[in-house]
Amino acid sequence: MVEKTKRMLDIEAMLxxxxxxxxxxxxxxxxxxxxxxxxxxxxxxxxxxxxxPYVPAFLMGGQAYGRLGKVNDAMAxxxxxxxxxxxxxxxxxMGEMQGLLDTLD
Length: 105
What we know:
By secondary structure, the chain is mainly α.
């Protein structure tokens, strides 16, 4: 676990008021990822995905699991993300996730 930055603490404070805000949850996970704590980031992104199908979380979760060497988890998140991106007509995200998935297969 990394030492929390002021930005992390600020996001956590906002989340205390808006615990279901997908963007804030995503932003906090990205802060952990930026600090090299992929395990925490992946966990937070998985929790977010379970609550709401926030498309960017699938790609970032796949990347985080990949960096952790959890290839099966990465592929599962990416496959789920591709389905959700297609539902949301987000072809750009779908293509990015497919590209990453292709490198893991």
